[in-house]
Amino acid sequence: MPPFPKRCLRCLAWLLGFLAILLALTFLVGGRHEELLSRLLPLLLWVCGVGEPHTANSHPLLPTTAFFLLSPPACDLPATTPGLLVLVASAPGHAAQRVAVRQSWGMVQEAGGLAVRTIFVLGLPGEVALQAALEHEATKHGDLLQGHFADTYANLTLKTLTLLGWAATHCPATRFLLKADDDVFLNLPALASHLRTLEGPDAAYLGHVHWLAVAIRDPHSRHYVPASLYPSPIFPPYCSGPAYVLSGSAATAVLAAARHLPLLPVEDAFVGLCARHAGIAPRHLAHMARSTRYPPDACCYREVLFSIHGVAPVQMLAMWAEPERPCSTWQRLLGLARCKVLTWLTASEEQ
After folding, report:
1. pTM, whole model, 2 decimals?
2. DSSP letters of 99-162?
3. Residue 25 half-sphere exposure toward CB, CA atoms < 13 A
4. Residue 339 in contact with residue 300, Cβ under 8 Å?
5. 290-314, pLDDT tens digit by residue?
6. Nearest CA to 167 among 71, 270, 58?
7. CA distance linking residue 9 with residue 349, whole number of Å
8. Closest by alpha carbon to 164, among 63, 70, 276, 77?
């Protein structure tokens, strides 16, 4: 058999090298390295002795019925208990955002084999007239949950504790809770299908994970956390606030941990701190966006990504009107990597 020509060997080496680089880029851009790191977090937390397991003796921080000024109907029967309860953090003046959600992904009542229910959570407005409008909206739609606290950015942590407390007392059998902001577009079928693949009844905390996030000490920042409240310069890993998922047992564990921790004004970091206290490590979902603003692309919004942040009401309705499976074969093959490249290109054009 004649020897293989050296020129062909060089070509083969170049081809294998190119394929290796392409595979590495796909792994990095697609977020697979982040998901791998997330899988290792429980082991790292255990080795470092971080976190305290949630025990049955830890009573959750449950609000009384009187705490809710407006409250939607409870999940009294198994037939009315959703598998996925979506709790949307809104503001009294965000009527347009709530309308857009109700007329788009918020109308979904079943996704990926899970029954879905969507509720909006808010605090007290500064104007009496606006409160009257909220009461009318609650009567019309039956989907407003209002707590007795001023609706300010500094009170976002209270808002999250309100929605978790309501879910624990009024829908205790819900399998998954999804907290989202009212400017987030959710791809509920894709997300719910992923959630159904999770094994076992273990506590789950999922989203776009921040690692080694630094506590901001600038008093002029709205993310300011004084050292007297939280001495450590680094937060434990936590899921980005625009959208994250807690299983029912994880939500109860977070509420139980909240009784023993300082009430940090950075809502998503506080939830991560509670999760660490309960011995729950966050799992990274690369398909859930953090503060990244993706350009309006039907393939990214309706099929690839689980959540997109910073979506205006008009854009939300426009994306909902697009076909349900809008990706071509090659777009589906590139998946998340293509959506991230589109974002980088759009950001470059705007600069």
Report:
1. 0.81
2. HHHHTTGGG--EETTEEEEEEEEEEE-S-HHHHHHHHHHHHHHS-EEEEEEE--GGGHHHHHHH
3. 12
4. yes
5. 777 888 899 999 999 999 999 999 9
6. 71
7. 42
8. 63
Q: Does the structure show a pLDDT above 60 at 94? A: yes
DSSP letter string over 171-224? Answer: -TT-SEEEEEETT-EE-HHHHHHHHTT--SS---EEEEEE-SPBPB--TTSTTB
3-state SS, residue 244: strand
pLDDT of residue 44: 38
Q: Which helix (H) or strand (E) holds 46?
A: helix 32-48
Beta strands in 185-332 (DSSP E): 185-186, 205-210, 238-247, 283-284, 307-308
| Both tokens assigned to 40 | 């290792």
Query: How far apart (Å, rounded) are the C-alpha atoms in residues 170 and 1?
Result: 77
**Tens digits of residue pLDDT in 257-280:** 999 998 899 999 999 999 999 999
CB 45 within 8 A of CB 52: no
Residue 12's pLDDT is what?
A: 56
Report yes or no: 174 and 95 within 8 Å, Cβ to Cβ. no
Strands 307-308 and 185-186: antiparallel
Look up tokens 């504790």; give the residue: 161
